[in-house]
Amino acid sequence: MTILLTRSRAELHAGPRPATRRTRHGPRYIGYVYLLPALAVYVLFLLAPFAHSVYLSFFSWDGITDQKYVGLANYERLFALPDFPAALGRTVVLVLGLLPFTLVVPTVVGLLARRVRGRAATVYQALVFAPMLVAPVAGAALVGVGPQGIQQPVAIVVPAASGRSGLADDELARSVRAAADLPLAAVLTVRSLPVDIRHASKIDRSRLARWAGGVLSGARVGRP
Fold first, then answer.
1. Can you tell me the distance from the alpha carbon of 44 to that of 57, in angstroms, rounded to the nearest whole number?
2. Percent of the chain scored above 90 by pLDDT?
3. Does pTM surpass 0.70?
């Protein structure tokens, strides 16, 4: 059976019917609905605390007793500190120094990357995301080894690739030392970091320090 759909000559010349109000505006507003959860979290955990901090800056309050309104007295004390100009200058230099690397360079790279097509785009994406997926270290802890007062910093890391416990290989040790902001006496590896039984997410550093001290003194390498 054949069904014929007919339209008048005027309708054919007029073209497609205009979209209804719901069709035109519905998809345009649906994006804001998806943004609402993130916007609520942003307002609740960032903007609201910031506004409350500004409000509290006009009071003298120790967190326990009643608040006492002092107006701009807290700001006057801040500006009168001798170290304030130097601290403000360092902050400005830091912000301006990081601005090209956090805004300008990523924007330029993103605009240039839009022109990459085909297999080159796949290679580019792999190069960008590969370091995040194959990090050489899955976990790390810094402990002090030695007598109290003259302890030496020792880094203990969990390699992303499973391996034996003990001294780290030269390549991994160089990577850890390069990332550390202080000279390390040694770099050790373990299969897993022990946690404090009282805090399931807290690393038991005292236990790690005893284990590291034993390894560096020539004791048998076992589990920390």
1. 19
2. 22
3. no
